[in-house]
Amino acid sequence: MNLKQKVKYFSVFWLLYSIRLKSWSNEKLKSQILKRGHLLEKAIREKSDRRVLDKELTILFSELSKRKIKIDESLHWSHDILFSSRFNFSLKTEQKDHFKTINQGTIENLIKSRRSIRNWNNKNLKITDIIKTIEIAKWAPNSCNRQGWFFLIINNRRDFKMVEKLTNQNFFMKAKCLIVVMTSKSKYSLGEEIYSYLDAGAITENILLLLHAKNLGACWLGLKESTNYKKHLNVFLRYFELSNDYKPVSFLAVGNYDRKPKPPLRINGKDLYKLIR
């Protein structure tokens, strides 16, 4: 293929690419910008060919501008990466964090002392504590910084019934609050569904530890796709006025408690890993 043919080929390719992305939802467009931003940052770091990523990210931002979508901090990050790539501009990185100020023993004790609480007292719960917890937990690691999670905070026990229909258990009806952990399907491409669960799991663990630090008791429960699950899921989404893009994957039952259960046994450390030297 000579130079003229190559130019024609890539012109057609990028034209088709621009047409195809017009069918993407706004969420998918932003998700792909974040993903390409991370790939470009990696290419810059490894000093590999980044021309295709440069072009692709430029087209994606152009489409974003046409749709007049507000650029948040995460998208600004990808834009800065594109700018540094195209103009060979080195971005300043943050100075090393002062982790020495953190008491390592406190973190270890927090992890080891957390328990799954299934009995709660009648003491009221501050919803502001739940909201602050989620806002801190969002710093969890996640694939390509997509942050494809969403949380439904249910503070009215009448609405607990909608969650009960999605699971075969109902002991959580005595909790003060339910946090339904959801993922945004549009932020993950075909074959990447596993990443959505990993991302949701990472932020959920952060939430559990933060709740424990506030002396709140929580129990993490999965959502099994049992009989009539899809029917109940559609009712659930309509009831809470959520789009079909959101998929609930688990939920937390939260409240104040009087007694914590005894720690269960954990497997021996030697059975936990295999060291390859």
What does this structure look like?
Helix content is 46%, strand content 11%. With 277 residues, the chain is of the alpha+beta class. Strands 1-2-4-3 form a 4-stranded antiparallel β-sheet, covered by helices on one side. Helix 2 (26-46) packs antiparallel against helix 3, helix 2 (26-46) packs across helix 4 (73-86) and helix 6 (127-137) crosses helix 8 (193-213). The chain is globular, with a radius of gyration of 23 Å.
What is the element layout, followed by pairings?
Elements: H1 3-20, H2 26-46, H3 51-66, H4 73-86, H5 104-113, H6 127-137, E1 149-154, H7 160-164, E2 177-184, H8 193-213, E3 217-222, H9 229-239, E4 246-255
Helix pairs in contact: 2-3, 2-4, 3-4, 6-8
- The share of residues in helices is 40-55%
What characteristic shape results from the CA principal axes? globular
N- to C-terminal distance: 49 Å
Weakly predicted, low-confidence segments? none
Largest sheet: 4 strands, antiparallel
Radius of gyration: 23 Å
Average pLDDT, rounded to a whole number, is 87
Helix-strand string? HHHHHHEHEHEHE
Approximate strand percentage: 5-15%
Number of alpha- plus pi-helical segments: 9
Task: Briefly note the structural class of the backbone.
Answer: alpha+beta
- Main sheet: which strands, in order across? 1-2-4-3
**What is the β-strand count?**
4
Which key phrases capture this entry?
277 residues, alpha+beta, 9 helices
Short description:
With 277 residues, this protein is α+β, with helices and mostly antiparallel strands. The protein has helices spanning 3-20, 26-46, 51-66, 73-86, 104-113, 127-137, 160-164, 193-213, 229-239, and strands at 149-154, 177-184, 217-222, 246-255.
